[in-house]
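Narrative of activities, Objective 1.

The group set out to show that a structural description can be obtained from nothing but a protein's sequence at a throughput compatible with the screening campaign. Below is one input-output pair from the validation batch, recorded exactly as produced.
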Amino acid sequence: VVLLHFWATWCPPCAEEFPSLVQVYTAYKTRGLEVIAVSLNDFSEMQDVMRFVHAQKPPFPLYIAGTVKETFYRSIDKRWSSGVPLTLMYDKTGTLRYFHDGARTYAQFDRDVQSLLQ
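Output recorded for this entry:
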């Protein structure tokens, strides 16, 4: 099960929900959950990203997209209007099962992850 999460340091809801991502990964990593976080910060904002990462200490891979072009968003999912946070969740077969545009709580992440790990 893969949780693919798009966020940015300049997005207050992203910063608020990020600890829930860490918490859900910690709770389910031994059961097969993978989390991949992709920052939509510009490369010029690398110091902001590094400060955020240092504070949050995510135990999963974190990448920087390096682009905010519409073609990038559309290549991820045609429904994505470029807003963040965005969470895509894939089941064990690699099928996209959840598309969540907007911030999520730990309880919401937990419910979706549990349903996909069964």
